[in-house]
Amino acid sequence: MKLDHSQPLEYSTNQNSVNIFGFWIFLGAEIMLFATLFTVYFTLSNRTGHGPTGTDIFEITPVLIETILLLTSSFVIGLAIHAMRLGNKKAMLTFFAITLLLGLGFLGFEIDEFVHYVHIGAGIQTSAFTASLLTTLGTHGAHVTFGLFWGLAIILQVKKRGLTPETANKSFIFSLYWHFLDVVWIFIFSFIYLK
Amino acid sequence: MKELFPAKQIMGFVFSLILTAVALAVYFLDLSFSAGLTILIVTAFVQALLQLIVFMHAGETKDKWSIYGNVYFMVFIALVTIFGTLFLFLWDM
Questions:
Q1: What are the pLDDT digits (tens) for A49-100?
Q2: Domain extent at residue B90
Q3: Same domain, B65 and B48
Q4: CB-CB neighbors (< 8 A) of B67 in chain A
Q5: What confidence score (pLDDT) does residue A164 get?
Q6: ipTM exceeds 0.85
Q7: Which of A27, B23, B36, B40 would staple B31 via disulfide (CB 3.0–4.6 Å)?
Q8: Helix, strand, coil percent values for chain B (each to nearest 5)
Q9: How many separate domains does chain B show?
C-alpha cells in the first residue's frame, strides 16, 4: 500500500481517493432522488382534497429547532474531520458523538411532528399533498436514521482500530453523507415550510 | 483546544446561521410571493455551496473538477426535471 503523505490520511491511498469520488457519484444520484420527490411535492402541494393545507398544519417552532439541530450537527461533524486530520482521535470521537446526539434530537422532533400530523388528520393517505409531503420528509428522515447507525458503527471501529487510512476514509465519507443530508434539509426548510 | 476550532469552519457556521435567519424572515415579513421565493432560492443555494466548499472540502484535492462536474451536472438535471415538470403540470405551457 503506497501512502501519499502530501494528502490527508483519508485520501492517502489510491483506493481511498477512488472511494471518496465514488461516494460523490452516489451523492449525485441522491440529488436526483430528492429532486424527483421535490418535483412530486411542488406538483401536488395544492391538491389538498378534503384534507388540510400546508398553512393549516405547519408549525414554525419545531421546524426551526430541527433546522438548528441539523445545521449544528453538520458543523460539528466538520470539526470531527478537522480533529481527525490533526490526528486527535479523542476530540474526533467526541465530535462524532455530539453529531449523532444532535441527529437523534432532530429525529425526535421529526417523529413528534409526524405523530402530530397524523393526530390532526393529515396522514399519508389524506390527500396528494400530505402523501407527497410525508414521503419527502420521510425519505430524508430515513436517511438520517440510517446515518445514526452508520455513524455509531464508525465510532466503534475507530475506537477499536484507531485512525488508519481505512477508518479515516470511512469517517470522511460519512461526513460527506451527513453534510449532504443537511443540504437536503435546507431545501426542505426553504421550499416546503417557508414558501 | 483552539486548534480544534478552525476559523474557516466557525465563519461558515455563523454565515449559514445568518442565511437561515434571512430565509426565516420571509416567513414573518409580509413579502410578495415572488420576492419571498427569490430570497429563498438565493439563501438555499448559497448555503448549499457553503456546505460543499467549506465543510465537504470539495475543492481541495486533485479530483476537484470531477467532483464539481459531477455535482453541477446532477444539479442541472435535477433543475431540468423539476422545472420541466412544473412547466407541463402547473404552468400549462
A1: 889 998 899 999 999 999 999 999 999 999 999 999 999 999 999 999 999 9
A2: 61-93
A3: no
A4: 21, 24
A5: 93
A6: yes
A7: B36
A8: 80, 0, 20
A9: 2
